[in-house]
Amino acid sequence: MVLKDRGKKGWGRFFRSFKYASRGLIYVLLKEQNMQLHTAFAVFVVVIAFLLRIPLLHLVILVVVIAGVLALEIVNTAIERTVDLVTNEYHPLAERAKDISAAAVFVFSIAAVVIGILIFYGPVLSLFTK
Ligand SMILES: Nc1ncnc2c1ncn2[C@@H]1O[C@H](COP(=O)(O)OP(=O)(O)OP(=O)(O)O)[C@@H](O)[C@H]1O
User: Fold this and answer.
1) Is this model's pTM higher than 0.95 or not?
2) Which residues are annotated as active site (predicted)?
3) Which domains, from first to last, does the chain contain?
4) Measuring CA to CA, which of 22, 52, 84, 129 is 20 to 30 A from 5?
């Protein structure tokens, strides 16, 4: 078992933490279908935002909201894996923990959709009324 960094400080530890985080990100991107869908949609939204030349502040809001959805999806995956570590059998508490964790992504995703509509409504409408 490799837990050599536990309790250590310094630049080596700092840069290794990037390696661990990148490994986690790549894992979630490769293994989680929801993460792939969110990422594909996020890329699409950012491309459209640039094409429609939305204001910088709206672009910043979009980036924060997209990062929020992706970060919550990553935490949700971590909770799922932790629950699986505790039990692979059916357990009502495992079910509850996973459902609640998924609910966090759900709530933020709904907010993201509402924010997206508010930001894109004007620019898209003006495309058709020109
Ligand atoms: N050990 C368990 N006991 C009871 N219910 C579970 C258990 N594991 C999963 N579930 C139920 O199945 C749902 C889906 O869980 P699952 O772990 O398959 O998540 P997922 O979103 O499909 O992610 P992934 O495909 O990455 O595993 C959970 O929200 C929960 O309701």
Assistant:
1) no
2) 73 (proton acceptor)
3) 9-129 (1.10.287.3610)
4) 84
